[in-house]
Inverse folding.
């Protein structure tokens, strides 16, 4: 899973949307750098689009993690439109497009030990991981289209992110964290972001979708 916080994306030769790194963004990058790199190494775009079966397993794994996490983020009442940024509807739509019935979607395993933010700052730390991953989803979407022939309307809506608005939505998110996560809360937000990466990696291991 690509997750790039506005820095050059050397792995795919593209540049993530330009965004000046303020104090909060820098703190979140530092707190998550090691865990971010590990997850990228263990879940490269080529593995996500390796086969239709592998792709569906990965979508199901993300669905099981994102649905409870997004609800926890929403409950913490962060200063952003959490509903408009939810990824779970896209995951549900993709899995349905690939043949999952509503009953099968309801039966998918959910991660019940993910991060549970207790403050708006912690919720923004968790959301940093989710929103950052949306940037990297653009290159994954290209792999999925090239290898599996899937687009936003046929099973690749999740990795398509916000489409042409992805860069704009990222810059809006960065402005929010810089405005609302002041110095006393940066460490707390950083821990929440780090815990999100750790929990996601652990969950994906249980789903058997990560490389060793």
């Amino acid at each position: 899973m690509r997750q790039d916080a506005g820095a050059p994306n050397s792995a795919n030769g593209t540049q993530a949307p330009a965004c000046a790194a303020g104090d909060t963004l820098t703190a979140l990058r530092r707190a998550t750098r090691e865990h971010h790199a590990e997850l990228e190494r263990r879940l490269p775009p080529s593995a996500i689009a390796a086969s239709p079966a592998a792709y569906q397993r990965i979508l199901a794994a993300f669905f099981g993690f994102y649905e409870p996490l997004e609800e926890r983020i929403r409950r913490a009442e962060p200063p952003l439109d959490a509903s408009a940024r939810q990824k779970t509807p896209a995951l549900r739509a993709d899995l349905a497009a690939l043949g999952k019935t509503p009953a099968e979607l309801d039966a998918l395993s959910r991660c019940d030990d993910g991060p549970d933010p207790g403050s708006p700052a912690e919720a923004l730390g968790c959301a940093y991981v989710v929103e950052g991953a949306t940037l990297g989803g653009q290159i994954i979407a290209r792999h999925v289209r090239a290898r599996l022939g899937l687009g936003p309307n046929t099973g690749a809506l999740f990795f398509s992110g916000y489409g042409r608005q992805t860069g704009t939505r990222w810059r809006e998110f960065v402005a929010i964290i810089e405005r609302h996560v002041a110095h006393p809360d940066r460490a707390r937000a950083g821990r929440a972001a780090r815990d999100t990466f750790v929990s996601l990696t652990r969950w994906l291991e249980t789903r058997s979708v990560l490389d060793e």
